[in-house]
């Protein structure tokens, strides 16, 4: 049970004091009130202000020097085997970046189309859920609209997936077609007997100097920019 606190105000009744008649007597002069010297207030204690502590001097932290990037290992003289990283070529080369941009642009376009259709479908579904606010004719029309939008969204999804797959395959073929002569040129220049794909050959370890990925990217970008590639030297035997 909840308790309530009640404030009670007590009023004190002041009684009247009776006045007595005095006999005819000379009034007695009341004595003079005792004079008492006022006690001066105590002087405030004087306390010296405490000076603020001096700020701690902290030596600036000197950042650790960053290790200088190691220069690429030179290709071992007389080596007949090399390797390359195709995913890195696709990610860092100008041709690979352009292909990625085209795929991303198509994806964003298809997503925008799907989002627009989904908003239309959501609006139509909200009309149906309004209950008795729609007439029978309006309800029938809205129901057909929901069915139509549902079918359009399904077809749009299928078309988008097919178009994305087609573009990716097309770009992959173009990428391979343009990259193959570049790979061949670098392999001929190095006098290689075999050039491996690092991600496909099951390599456990290899001399970093055998990695020709950077050389291939430079040559690939030069070919994409329309630069005339240098004439490869004769094949070493």
Question: What does this protein look like?
Answer:
The chain is mainly alpha-helical and 237 residues long. The chain has a domain at 81-224: Protein Binding, DinI Protein, Chain A, CATH 3.30.910. It has helices spanning 86-92, 94-128, 136-190, 213-224; strands at 81-84, 194-197. A two-stranded parallel sheet has the order 1-2. Helix 1 (86-92) packs across helix 2 and helix 1 crosses helix 4 (213-224). Mean pLDDT is 78; it is low at 1-36 and 232-237.
Features:
two-stranded parallel sheet; Protein Binding, DinI Protein, Chain A; 237 residues; mainly alpha; disordered C terminus; 2 strands; elongated; disordered N terminus
Number of helices: 4
Q: Helix/strand-derived class?
A: mainly alpha
Taken in chain order, the helices and strands follow as EHHHEH
Shape: elongated
Amino-to-carboxy terminus distance: 105 Å
| Side-by-side strand order of the widest sheet | 1-2
**CATH class placement of the domain at 81-224:** Alpha Beta
CATH topology name of the domain at 81-224: Protein Binding, DinI Protein, Chain A
Low-pLDDT stretches: 1-36, 232-237
Radius of gyration: 48 Å
| CATH architecture field of the domain at 81-224 | 2-Layer Sandwich
Q: Profile the largest sheet.
A: 2 strands, parallel
Number of strands: 2
This entry's quaternary arrangement is single chain
């Amino acid at each position: 049970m909840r308790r309530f606190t009640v404030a009670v105000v007590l009023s004190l009744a002041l009684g009247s004091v009776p006045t007595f008649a005095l006999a005819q007597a000379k009034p007695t002069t009341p004595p003079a009130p005792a004079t008492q010297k006022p006690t001066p207030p105590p002087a405030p204690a004087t306390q010296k202000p405490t000076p603020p502590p001096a700020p701690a001097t902290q030596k600036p932290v000197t950042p650790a020097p960053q290790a200088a990037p190691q220069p690429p290992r030179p290709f071992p003289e007389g080596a007949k085997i090399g390797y390359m990283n195709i995913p890195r070529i696709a990610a860092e080369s100008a041709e690979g970046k352009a292909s990625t941009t085209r795929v991303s642009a198509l994806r964003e376009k298809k997503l925008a189309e799907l989002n627009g259709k989904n908003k239309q479908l959501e609006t139509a579904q909200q009309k149906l859920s309004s209950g008795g606010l729609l007439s029978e004719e309006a309800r029938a029309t809205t129901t057909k609209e929901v069915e139509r939008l549902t079918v359009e969204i399904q077809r749009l999804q299928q078309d988008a997936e097919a178009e994305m797959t087609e573009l990716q395959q097309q770009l992959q073929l173009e990428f391979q077609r343009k990259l193959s002569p570049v790979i061949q040129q670098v392999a001929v220049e190095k006098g290689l007997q075999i050039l491996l794909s690092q991600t496909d050959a099951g390599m456990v370890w290899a001399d970093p100097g055998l990695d020709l990925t950077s050389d291939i990217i430079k040559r690939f970008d030069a070919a994409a920019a329309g630069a005339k590639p240098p004439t490869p030297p004769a094949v070493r035997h």
